[in-house]
Amino acid sequence: SKKDLAEKLKTMYKVHDVQCIQLFGFKTAFGGGRSTGFGLIYENLDKMKKFEPKYRLKRAGVGGEKSGAGRRGKKDTKNRMKKVRGKEKTKAASSGGKK
């Protein structure tokens, strides 16, 4: 598994933290028994967060948490706002508003 490979790479290249190793893009050879893939080793977590794409950070469990309202919530708010005029718009945007 990727965890085992990361541990092996850690000892091979004397890496201080396993989380600084990113392994991805594995393809199994025909007939099995061997895989080829790609790996990146970063100096520290800060460098990794700077250069790695968000989806790979999320995969590694390092960062990339979503914030803010979801897509459906935003649409619901927008459509509630369309139904009212004037000062009620702010009320509709903040709370449930008049449905």
Supply database-style keywords.
single chain, two-stranded antiparallel sheet, alpha+beta, about 100 residues
In words, what does this structure look like?
- By secondary structure, this protein is of the alpha+beta class.
- It has helices at residues 2-13, 45-51, 54-60, 71-82, 88-94, and strands at residues 21-28, 35-41.
- The chain has a two-stranded antiparallel ribbon with strand order 1-2.
- A hairpin with a 6-residue loop joins strand 1 and strand 2 (35-41).
- It starts with a helix and ends in a 5-residue tail after the last helix.
Q: Count of DSSP E strands? A: 2
Query: Poorly predicted ranges (pLDDT <50, ≥5 residues)?
Result: none
**Widest sheet: strand order?**
1-2
Name the average pLDDT: 87
**SSE-based structural type:** alpha+beta
Succession of helices and strands: HEEHHHH
CA radius of gyration is 23 Å
**Helical stretch tally:** 5
Beta-strand fraction estimate: 15-25%
Gross morphology is elongated
Helix content: 40-55%
Between the first and last Cα atoms, what is the distance in angstroms?
Answer: 52 Å
Largest sheet: 2 strands, antiparallel
